[in-house]
Amino acid sequence: MGNASSGTTIRAEEAAHFGKLAQDWWDPKGSSAMLHRLNPVRLAFLRDAIDAHWQGDSRSVRPLVGKRALDVGCGAGLLCEPLARLGAAVTGVDAAAENIAAASAHAAGGGLSIDYRCGDVAELGLSGFDLVTSMEVIEHVADKAAFLSALAAALGPGGLMVLSTPNRTAKSRLLMVEAAERIGMVPRGTHHWEDFITPEELSDILEDVGLKMHAPKGIAWSPAKGLHLSDDLSLNYIAAVTRT
Predict the structure, then answer these.
(1) 108, 129, 198, 221 - which has most CB atoms within 10 Å?
(2) What is the pLDDT of residues 201-210, one digit of tens each?
(3) Domains of the chain: total
(4) Whole-angstrom Cα Rg for the chain
(5) Contact 102, 110 (CB under 8 A)
(6) 4 is a domain residue
(7) In sequence order, what are the residues at sequence separation of 6 or more whose Cβ sits closer than 8 angstroms to the Cβ of residue 58?
């Protein structure tokens, strides 16, 4: 379940690994190609969760107008930019300075105003956000309980959190680590299977920090559909989280 609490959630070697990929992050055919395929699936779940949580109009183009959103482990901004286009005032946090530089440059090029910060979310003192997201991040942090506690502290009253992460199963070890890295779908060293977390484990830690995980959806893959939302949680899952 991660290392003993050290007051920081960042693993230096993980930040360095992803920092090296920063300049390639926005290339849909580069080292982050899998994230580009994953992003529409995550956004579909996120949009449904937003509409359900705030009883919004599913046809609205900008359902997050007037709301503050925080994306933790934002990389080069693949999720921050869609959140901004949905109307939110967005803050993105990442441990790698190279990612924040790439994110800032890309947002500026697209005319988007996003508050990017480099650092550990546990040390930045962020609070009062209506929406907190952290996608494919918890499996990389040093202390999962401390990390989720920091996310809970950032979430404002009545807020919504959405988390996604790989499940720790025999199938995920085979497909997400061994096969995906061997054939180059993800860069070598991206995933450490022993750090993956099951839905039950994640739910228990969230409960300890005053949060409730709602029924997760799986993110599955098939030759016919590619990546898609599914009831199969064995590879990857995404869930809405609220205060208990």
Answers:
(1) 129
(2) 999 999 999 9
(3) 1
(4) 17
(5) no
(6) no
(7) 47, 51
